[in-house]
Specification:
- The chain is about 35% helix and about 15% strand.
- The protein is built from 16 helices and 14 strands.
- The two termini are about 40 Å apart.
Length: about 575
């Protein structure tokens, strides 16, 4: 049996159930609740609940007058003042609260049984008698056999089911009480989109023309890059003209660990405390899945455990959940890791950033709603009104909606050497995947270095100069992409900003200054997040810093390998580590 919810969380469940019982007393019969069940730890709460049951047993309507009379009869009139101030609560989650409180009651009943058994083990009593007593006591407290009361599980005729329209959180995009997944390459714009949605929901501001149907508290559990998130939200506030200072928008200081019950119990307690002061959460965000998982993302067991933990966190308020995740290294069309996650979500959104700078947002799964139309955005620089230590302006960026257009397909290589080089690259990728798979790891993490590709081409009879020309041509035609020292077939993952020629910085004077797309502070990626190494992100026309890796020797010489002026510095740094976007 797990540790269960924290004491503060149980207190929230108890007080909410009491509010439901007062405003919707029919749940007492529906779930076979009784005074003797002791769902409430505090004597005062049990007394008020007993008064509600007494009024019902007398055939009276439950209101302040009848409850005051019942408390007076029980000699507990001092409880009336606190009880009368209870606000009505929706019965939608009554089954959840009752289940959790019954589990907690079973734990409380079990504690003395186990303490007695431990005491008997140190005595001279025969072991058979101790086991027999333990079994009898387990049955008494309901730990053997079902502990749930009858009445919650029902079968209904199909004709009795009520047809309801979608309850939107963001009109035409995200439903309330649903689980959504945003996935894409590093630096694709996932976190920009998640923050934009969160700020709109917290403030009630329309999301690019889409109405926020249920604005309210947003809890953003961030795995990394908190300073970058702060800059982005400052940019959002400046661009939208909406203050976030007093908005019900909270960001964690640490990542969660969904697979750790102890950590999740603490998070449940903190969220419940925030909800008491700011109202029920409308949305809970995990950015990113891997940073907040606390387990193996390729494991179906760990993924199922994590989804259950996230559902428990959302359930008391029927809040929507938004998960930000990465694509696989090999399969760019799906989220990385176990497919259990995709099976659990109600909405799956793919975020891609093309070589034309456009961020494309497309629906790849919609369980019960019409899939939203494809959307497109561009990043626009925002002057934050701050100066760095050298006196230069600090900038971030916001999303600006663009008309959606499909990206032009890469040109099909026609040259003999180009086709041969692509065939060799395909063989090398498969060979690397097999080697990784044979070692017991996920083959999607396999990467092919430019040197390995070149050596394979030279072994097939292609000279070095010809290889350099072929590589340049294939890159220009978008048949391949270069990421650091690695090469892959093109998937539009290399980030490019909106051209400044037609996207001037908002709020700035147009002078050169810091943006999150530059390496101005010397240690940040385009996204504003702290990178695992300096080569994890690239921008056209900019040189990444040399990465230090204690396990591998990487080229330290800045070399273009035949690339035109302004091309990506392709031979510096280590394999890109996971980075937020």
């Amino acid at each position: 049996m797990s540790a269960g919810p924290s004491r503060d969380t149980l207190g929230y469940y108890e007080s909410t159930l009491l509010r439901i019982a007062k405003s919707h007393p029919q749940i007492i019969d529906e779930f076979s609740l009784s005074v003797g069940e002791e769902l409430f730890r505090e004597p005062a709460l049990r007394t008020v609940f007993a008064a509600i049951v007494a009024v019902l047993n007398d055939g009276l309507v439950v209101d302040d007058g009848t409850l005051k009379a019942a408390l007076d009869t029980a000699g507990k009139s001092d409880h009336f003042l606190s009880m009368a101030s209870l606000e009505p609560a929706s019965p939608a989650n009554a089954a959840f609260y009752i289940e959790k409180l019954r589990e907690a009651a079973s734990r409380r009943a079990l504690e003395p049984v186990l303490q007695d058994a431990l005491a008997n083990l140190s005595s001279d009593r025969p072991l058979e008698e101790i086991v027999a007593d333990l079994e009898r006591n387990f049955y008494k407290v309901g730990c053997l056999g079902s502990t749930k009361k009858t009445g919650s599980f029902q079968l209904r005729r199909i004709g009795e089911l009520e047809i309801k329209p979608p309850q939107w959180l963001v009109q035409g995009f995200i439903e309330a009480d649903s689980l959504a997944l945003l996935f894409g390459d590093p630096a694709a714009g996932k976190s920009f989109l998640a923050l934009d949605l969160s700020a709109c929901i917290a403030t009630g501001s329309a999301f690019h023309g889409r109405r926020i149907a249920q604005n309210g508290l947003v809890v953003y559990i961030a795995g990394e890059g908190h300073s970058g998130l702060a800059r982005r939200l400052r940019a959002w506030s400046i661009a939208r003209g909406v203050s976030l200072d007093n908005a019900p928008f909270f960001i964690s200081t640490l990542p969660a660990s969904l697979c750790d019950p102890g950590t999740m119990g603490e998070i449940e307690r903190v969220v419940a405390s925030i909800a008491k002061e700011n109202g029920p959460p409308s949305m809970l965000v995990l950015d990113t899945w891997s940073r907040n998982l606390g387990g193996d993302e390729n494991s179906s067991a760990d993924t199922s455990l994590a989804i259950a933990a996230l559902d428990r966190l959302r359930a008391p308020w029927r809040a929507a959940g938004l998960v930000v995740h990465h694509v696989g290294h090999g399969e760019k069309i799906r989220a990385r890791g176990s497919t259990v996650l995709r099976g659990a979500v109600d909405l799956e959104i793919r975020v891609e950033r093309g070589a034309d700078s456009l961020i494309r947002v497309t629906c790849t799964k919609a369980k019960d709603i019409q899939p939203p139309e494809p959307m497109a955005y561009c990043l626009v620089d925002i002057d934050l009104g701050l100066l760095d230590e050298d006196g230069r302006p600090v900038r971030s960026a916001v999303l600006e909606e663009e008309k959606y257009r499909a990206e032009e397909a890469p040109k099909t290589p026609t040259g003999k050497n180009q086709k041969a080089a692509l065939d060799i690259l395909a063989v090398e990728i498969e060979r690397h995947r097999k080697n990784v798979s044979d070692s017991g790891r996920d083959p999607s993490v396999a990467r092919v270095s430019i040197d390995a590709w070149r050596e394979a081409c030279e072994a097939a009879g292609m000279d070095r100069k010809r290889f350099s020309d072929v590589k340049r041509t294939l890159k220009e035609s978008k048949a391949i992409q270069i990421e650091g020292i690695f090469v892959d077939f093109f998937s539009a993952s290399v980030p490019v900003r909106c051209p400044s020629a037609f996207r001037p910085p908002i709020g700035g004077d147009g002078k050169s200054g810091h943006t999150e797309s530059s390496k101005a502070d010397g240690n940040r990626t385009e996204t504003g997040q702290e990178p695992d190494n300096a080569a994890s992100q690239y921008l056209v026309g900019q040189k990444p810093l040399i990465a230090e890796d204690t396990n591998k020797t990487w080229p330290k010489k800045r070399r273009k390998s035949g690339e035109a002026e302004g091309a990506i510095w392709e031979d510096l740094g280590a394999e890109p580590a996971e980075a937020d976007s």
